Fold these 2 entries.
Entry 1:
Amino acid sequence: MKKPAEITCLFVDIGGVLLTNGWDHHARRRAASHFKLDWGEMEERHRMTFEIHEEGKLTFHEYLGLVVFYEKRRFTPAQFRRFMCDQSKPYVEMLGMVAQLKTRHGLKIVVVSNESLELNAYRIRTFKLGAFVDSFISSCFVHLRKPDVNIFQLALDIAQAPEDQVLYIENTAMFVGIAESLGIRSILHTDYKSTGKQLDSYGLQTESQLT
């Protein structure tokens, strides 16, 4: 039996893996409650706009204008933006793990993520993701979104990594399935400990796993 290729590149999602989700339905519901908005109407407007917003085809200002500020409000766009940004929290153990994998194994780290430009830039800057990530294949930059198979192909092209040398950490089962259909080995992330064990099975260890 042919020995599996050594992993040289790690693809990783941001929301749900490295950080909390940036603007999911839980965050939107909290925003609706905090700012006393009609949840149903806000969610419907979001549903009609979020895909092109995440693909970078609708600016943050335009998105807010369509979803929230289509009528006069008692709060400002700056206040709403601040609330949105405040929903992002780090998964400190996962951030440390990925950074250690890069250092210990010399891996190329590539983010493959669906995020809007404003939030993506905020999250990269605030949580210093650029300190260990080599490339950001974010939907807002490349104008493609998961589950489009082309975003994974683009990530492979930019990383210049053969698919059999890539391991993908993702918390959405559908996206894992798409990556695996391309020959990209994948981990369906649920928590730090189980992902660490699966990484170990691929020969990838961090200092915390060795102690």
Entry 2:
Amino acid sequence: MALPIVAIVGRPNVGKSTLFNKLIGKRLSIVDDTPGVTRDRIYSKCEWLGREFMLVDTGGIEPKSSDSILAQMRRQAEIAIDRACVIILVTDLRCGVTATDYDVASMLQKSGKPVILCVNKCDRLGDPSPEFYEFYNLGLGDPVEVSSVHGYGTGDLLDRVLECIPDDALAEEEKSIRVAVIGKPNVGKSSLINRIAGEDRAIVSDIAGTTRDATDTEIENEWGRYVFVDTAGIRKKSKVYENIEHYSVLRSYMAVDESDVCVIIIDASVGFTEQDSKVAGYAHEQGKGCIVAVNKWDVVEKDGGTMKKFTEEIKLKLGFMDYVPFIFISAKTGQRVNKLYELINLVYENNSMRITTGRLNEILAYATSRVQPPSDKGKRLKIYYMTQPTSNPPSFVVFVNNQELFHFSYMRYLENQIRETLGGLEGTPVRFMIRERDSRDTR
């Protein structure tokens, strides 16, 4: 059973993201003085008094705006409200009660959900200021004084949240595969998330940089449980001009760090670029299971060999990741999107694979009998044994008599033997750590 959802809503620039970060205990949402920084829904677990729930940060609600991005932000907030069991309405003491606050409060009252009124930016301890009592006019009961910057009142706020969550709604969350959807801007990452979710989970626009935060989407189907993370497009550093985009890119890298599998999206209408290679390279360096998804395949003119030619071209430019599987999809039409789940499961299992020391040394004995270890100036490399200390990715420690004799080419040969014997280990990098050991050490 999924955790209960608590949504943080309000008009722009009242401190929702600052409060969200304070409650979850880490900087997940981007915070800036610019209104409208948060656009999509951002989820994170929150724990208070030994009880867990899912907290959702939303974009600022502008009920009467006709701007396309603001309209989609409003829709994202409405979806969060529909799914939440408790709603926190954040307001700003310094600005007082505004017409937009009244509009948002009215919308929340119609939802029928428990609403907790949070008056933010109460930075002075002691008796509430006269302006505080104005917020009773919103008709949402007793407001809670909070300073999201300093943390004042957050405990009282969380106490109120727990009072409003039904006891039977609190449950343990099952293990999910965490999938980061990464790529450069405008390749269709958010469109793929929306297709997978079956709803407008992420805001989609032709404007590069629409997605700013790394946003989570939980999916459960016949293939398993997944958390798909939509990330901001990763551009060259020289093209990142705003602080907001700088933090967006950092969030994207963090999403890769915390993922189990990375789906690297490439735009079929543009082809493989140098920036695609850099994005993929970061996932490879972090040892993540990887899949290359070539999106917008529906717009490419094809003949009998188009897919093969495209694959060969990418493999040539992505030579350092020759283990990566390819899938050709269309987020717009849904072409082959369902096949992505089976591929994610396979790559996840391969990246998590553990091999016994006995099995590894059988592979080692066979490999060294086929191709003798290298020698130099009369000295021959001796490989005593091999073991696997960790997975994610599979990492092997090889004990030898002389590290300098262990050439890179022979390491690649051993890697290929391991992959061939174990079915390819498709989608996962393999790591080797060479340790020198005295031959007289019989351990």
